[in-house]
Design a protein that fits this description.
The complex is a heterodimer of chains A (241) and B (591). By secondary structure, chain A is mainly α. Chain A has one domain. Chain A is built from nine helices and no strands. Chain A is globular, with a radius of gyration of 19 Å. Chain B has 591 residues and is α/β, with parallel strands linked by helices. In chain B, 24% of the residues lie in helices and 18% in strands. In chain B, the strands form five sheets. In chain B, strands 1, 2, 3, 11, 12, 13, 14 and 22 form an eight-stranded mixed β-sheet that branches. A six-stranded antiparallel β-sheet of chain B has the order 8-16-17-18-15-21. In chain B, strands 5-4-20-19 form a four-stranded mixed β-sheet, with helices on one face. Chain B is globular. The two termini of chain B are 39 Å apart. Classes of the chains: A mainly alpha (241), B alpha/beta (591). Chains A and B meet through helix 7, helix 8 and helix 9 of A and helix 3, strand 5, helix 12 and strand 19 of B.
Chain lengths: 241, 591
């Protein structure tokens, strides 16, 4: 799954820089130079906006950036989730009524049920994410001589994510499959949702997949078969991508 | 002390399709109606205005236009021996809320039932003998016929500006339509919508297989249109936001766009939103309703007295209110007596996705909820259970309601869910894949029913509705048969890959995955008060001034989407109230 040949520690430093420190264009270019596999085909969309997390703690934020970068990396197919601002999306989304359980049924009793019945826990989304991050970091610390998830090398991070996805890791306090599925769904939502929500900067994810965004009018193109849809995306604010 | 409002002629619970139709018909007859809607008021402007309405995060993740489960949900179990657990996150089906209800966020597929769908039990028994029905299958005939409803099917299509092609008009076959449909009294109000690539491919495959494809009847206008009420529609522009969303374009028929413009401001029409009906009040002997109790927008307990109570909520909540209020005897699955909650049924849906190379421009971001193509060669009387092994039938269709990336991009088999390979797969699939679906009937059974849950309460302290439901062998065989036919069609088209399987033997109903909002039954119509909650006019056998038109009245589900039938039943019910009940209140059918 990895496309990234660079030294893990060097890339980690770059990611930290990318998110915590406002940068100029030069810094963004420097990042691209350090992504040898990716730069030829897909220039980075730029840098994420400077952002200070309000929901996530500094420790959680390290996890978020590292995991987001593994789930949707920058590569020859297009921009990565970190450069498109998905960590900002996540931090903002975790503060929404939705993440606090506004549209979920949250009353007990909380009974065990088979997977066909869906989520039966008592945690709201923001707590699933928070409890899950803590548990994954604790698992990593006990398995990898005290290291947090973000401090593992990239391949090891991917291996941990894969094990979480498949439920192979037993986490304290939460199902690893549940945490992984909810975290991934949030990352994808941030990557693809309208840029006004914090991710998908400059509609980079829409451009990658050829989604015209919020155009909302294709009647003229319904019966065209012999050429690709020609127009780039438009976002909710009316910007052209 | 409860607030008591002045008495009204009729109180209507819910402002979706049924509520809007009944309110229109009763106020036309000079009656005063109060409509109590649990959700907010909504109209095209400003609620469905471009571009805000098509924000995928708000529409399909926050589910802004759907019911929140925080206040009301249901508890589910597979069989009567276990405890049910609540549906905590929206999954298998999506009830609406607010003015328009599910009628504002539906797709627009607008079918009539087939004539044989009304008589399925007697047709099966006559054709194949009584033993053809497996033990525990509790299907029943509707107490009315296709011919009874035809004028109402027709009128509802003209209210909705339904776009399609008739197959049989006044008994004469017409090329291009469904050759198996019930006879129509006239052509659709609008012609079919244009075909996107997936629909065009569907015709190719269906014709190659010898089927008789036709355009799905779509209440997504193919042209400009003015309905009989003077409400205007514009041609659908394939924006790709039907399911989950209100229409930004006055193209998808909805109570909001097609009926409410003439109701709002009408004398005798009083719409109260954020009004949560708690129960129907009955006289001490339980034989008549006196009105309803509701919580107003401020949470104040309020009583609305009325001569007639119309339950026009989402089908499940109609049954919930009947159970909570003691309208009719609750169904007991052990003794198989009682009627309210009996014959809960669903829809048997499976999807098959087709993946092509970059020269095939499927453009699944374009979409029209009800458009596309289908056929009835495997539906209704065409299905011979002695050959296929199942009762019922189903349709296969190409439908493209519009796919956006937040709603999910189906990727080809073998593509992982994240990382570089996922990005590559999502990119390849986004513009170059589409899907066919199998929509099968679902029979009803003694052990599939609704009652009140003993453990869980809703946000108002009332017991949750409990659903006991699982797939039966009949529906699993049907799924395997119909999906097999869909896969055969896919082979004709020679895609790079196909993804999607039928239900496997022994597989259980999964509430996680969205399948269909076509929940039906639970308060069914019939000709016998021992085996149905409602008579042929959708009137409670037990409390004759309560009517419950809606999909709850279906004794089982056919292969079609229910909205066309629900609208027709609402007009049929309203006609009975206007022409019979108000002249002579009381039971319209003697038990």
């Amino acid at each position: 799954m990895s496309d990234d040949q660079q030294s893990p520690s060097r890339r980690r430093t770059l990611i930290k820089t990318l998110v915590f420190v406002p940068m100029g264009a030069g810094a963004a270019a420097a990042i691209q130079q350090n992504l040898p596999n990716a730069t030829a085909a897909a220039p980075a969309e730029g840098k994420p906006d400077a952002y200070t997390p309000k929901f996530f703690t500094a420790t959680e934020w390290k996890f978020v950036i590292a995991a987001v970068d593994r789930l949707i990396p920058h590569d020859q197919h297009g921009p990565g989730a970190v450069e498109l601002g998905v960590p900002e999306f996540l931090d903002r989304h975790m503060q929404s009524p939705y993440a606090a359980g506004a549209i979920w049924y949250m009353q007990g009793p909380f009974l065990e049920a088979t997977s066909e019945f869906g989520y039966q826990g008592k945690l709201a989304l923001k707590d699933i994410i928070r409890v899950g991050i803590k548990a994954v970091d604790a698992h990593c610390a006990s398995s990898f001589s005290g290291k947090a998830f973000a401090d593992l090398d990239l391949r090891m991070q991917e291996a941990v994510l894969k094990d979480l996805e498949e439920g192979k890791i037993k986490l304290a306090d939460i199902s690893s499959k549940l945490f992984f599925a909810d975290f991934l769904a949030e990352v994808r939502a941030g990557y693809f949702a309208d840029p006004s929500h914090g991710g998908n900067k400059n509609m980079g994810a829409w451009k990658m997949i050829g989604y015209p965004g919020m155009r909302g009018d294709y009647l003229e193109w319904v019966k065209i078969r012999d050429k690709p849809y020609p127009l780039g995306p438009v976002d909710l604010a009316g910007r052209r991508g | 002390m409860a607030i008591v409002k002045p008495k009204t002629d009729a109180v209507i619970v819910g402002m979706g399709w049924v509520g809007a139709i009944i309110a229109k018909e009763l106020t036309d007859a000079g009656m005063n109606v109060v409509v109590l809607e649990r959700g907010p008021d909504r109209d095209t402007q400003p609620d469905f205005a471009y571009p805000r309405v098509i924000d995928e995060l708000e529409g399909s993740v926050h589910r802004k236009y759907l019911q929140s489960l925080a206040q009301e949900t249901i508890a589910i179990r597979h069989n009567g021996t276990t405890s049910a657990v609540p549906m905590r996150r929206m999954g298998s089906f999506k009830p609406g809320t607010g003015v328009g209800g599910a009628g504002s966020h539906w797709s627009g597929c607008h079918f009539r039932a087939l004539p044989e769908d009304f008589k399925i039990r007697s047709i099966m028994e006559q054709k194949y003998g009584k033993k053809i029905l497996p033990a525990g299958m509790s299907i029943q005939d509707f107490p009315i016929t296709y011919e009874d409803l035809e004028p109402h099917f027709d009128h509802f299509e003209y209210v909705c500006g339904t776009s399609g092609k008739g197959g049989i008009i006044n008994g004469a076959q017409v090329a291009g339509g469904n050759p198996y449909e019930g006879s129509r009294s006239r052509e659709f109000p609008l012609g079919p919508n244009p075909d996107y690539l997936g629909a065009e491919y569907f015709y190719k495959a269906a014709n190659a297989m010898g089927y008789h494809p036709y355009p799905i009847p779509a209440s997504n206008a193919s042209g400009t249109y003015v309905n009989p009420y003077g409400c205007q529609m514009g041609p659908c522009n394939f924006c790709g936001f039907c399911s989950d969303y209100g229409c930004l374009n006055y193209s998808k028929a909805s109570p909001n766009a097609n009926i409410l413009p003439v109701l709002r401001g009408r004398k005798g029409f009083d719409l109260r939103t954020m009004a949560q009906v708690m129960k129907v009040n009955l006289t001490p002997d339980g034989k008549m309703a006196t009105g309803v109790n509701y919580l107003d927008a401020q949470g104040r307990e309020t009583e609305q007295p009325a001569d007639i109570v119309i339950l026009a909520a989402f089908s499940l909540y109609n049954v919930h209110l009947m159970l909570l209020s003691g309208i009719g005897p609750a169904y007991d699955p052990v003794t198989k007596t009682g009627t309210v909650g009996k014959n809960y049924s669903y829809q048997n849906l499976n999807r098959v996705s087709l993946f092509f190379d970059e020269t095939v421009h499927a453009n699944q971001f374009m979409g029209i909820g009800g458009g596309g193509a289908t056929f009835d060669d495997l539906n209704g009387n065409r299905n011979d259970p002695t050959k296929t092994g199942f009762i019922g039938g189903g349709i296969i269709w190409a439908r493209q309601p519009g796919g956006g990336p937040v709603r999910g991009i189906a990727t080809a088999p073998g593509v992982p869910g994240w990382g570089s390979d996922w990005k590559k797969g999502a990119k390849e699939a986004m513009r170059h894949s589409f899907y066919f679906e199998v929509q099968g009937s679902c029979m009803s059974y003694d052990d599939a029913y609704l009652d009140l849950d003993p453990n869980y309460k809703d946000g108002f302290g009332r017991p949750l509705l409990r659903m006991t439901f699982d797939w039966h062998e009949n529906e699993i065989i049907a799924s395997q048969y119909l999906v097999g036919k869909a896969q055969d069609m896919c082979q004709v088209l020679n895609p790079l890959a196909i993804k999607g399987d039928a239900k496997k033997a022994g597989s259980h109903y999964n509430i996680n995955q969205y399948q269909s909002t076509h929940t039906v039954g639970g308060a069914i119509m019939g000709d016998n008060p021992k085996t149905s909650a409602l008579n042929k006019y959708l009137q409670s056998w037990d409390v004759p001034n309560v009517f419950a038109p809606g999909a709850n009245a279906f004794p089982q589900n056919n292969g079609y989407n229910p909205t066309g039938m629900v609208g027709a039943l609402a007009y049929w019910c309203a006609k009975a109230i206007r022409e019979q009940y108000i002249k002579n209140p009381g039971p319209l059918v003697q038990a």
